[in-house]
Amino acid sequence: MTAHLRTTRRAGVIRLLVIAGGAxxxxxxxTTPGSAFPDAAAQQSYMQDLAEARFELLAAQIGQAPDVxxxxxxHAVSGDLESHENDSVVLFGDPTASFSQDxxxxxxxxxxxxxxxGVDYDLLLLGGELKELAPTxxxxxxxxxxxxxxxxxxxxxxxxxPGISIACDIxxxxxxxxxxxxxxxxxxxxxxxxxxxxxxxxxxxxESVLAVGTLFDLPDDVVSSFSEDELATQLPVxxxxxxxxxxxxxxxxxxxxxxTPLQLQAGFEVSGTSTxxxxxxxxxxxxxxxxxxxxxxxxWDRIEELRK
Length: 308
Prior knowledge:
The chain contains six helices and 14 strands. The chain has helices spanning 40-61, 164-180, 206-212, 220-224, 228-231, 296-307; strands at 13-20, 23-26, 68-78, 81-92, 97-102, 111-115, 121-126, 138-142, 188-193, 198-205, 234-241, 247-256, 262-272, 288-290. It has a 14-stranded mixed β-sheet with strand order 2-1-9-10-11-12-13-3-4-5-6-7-8-14. The longest helix has 22 residues, at 40-61. The model is unreliable at 6-31 (pLDDT under 50).
């Protein structure tokens, strides 16, 4: 990390559906009797219904304690400021146990985080120079994965956990963008495949992404410098779903043009199904240093200093 921003043709595709600025194209188009041209209104209605159905399936499943193995990433680059995060992620069980392994630190100053199921603390496994911060292999701190299922519009309790949290944030930004553009035809591409899986290409505005607040942690001076046109920038989003509508991969990736262009990318991809063997065995108290609540802010600050 050099500086902080705190932050072909596919086999099996059976139909390509496009909604863009009110225009529509479908390989499986509805036609008007006696006309060689497709019925645009019927096309658009069909495509909107299909897109809504796929979004609804995703929303119903995305935050519901999945047993998954995956990879999560968040990148932000603006001039000589940049931030990169790459983690392998395991989520297992209900209540959820999670284990994220830091893959983004070239100097070995890694922070792996294990959250045992049903507890109010996280266990940190520190690498490189960070090992000097504690006399034991593991460090216990208050959990950062406290679920609030009562939050309005919450997609589910799993949205607080690594990887899934990124997908939930992107989905929320997409939905906020679609709501803000109510009555205005949005740009959506839906590709359905023979096995029932799908790919959706859509977008979210920079303003909606920033409103989520937890996807990219950009400095206040960077955020306050955005013009209205820059806030309205549409950042492309791609969503892959399995036949049941569950998440396979979700990614946001785009550039905000300005005096200093800002490149943003974030995503989560599921690579397999997790089992109990994929999460660590909780260490004994003899192998764990507990950081008192009053000292935890300073502890995290020290980690950030060493990782710069």
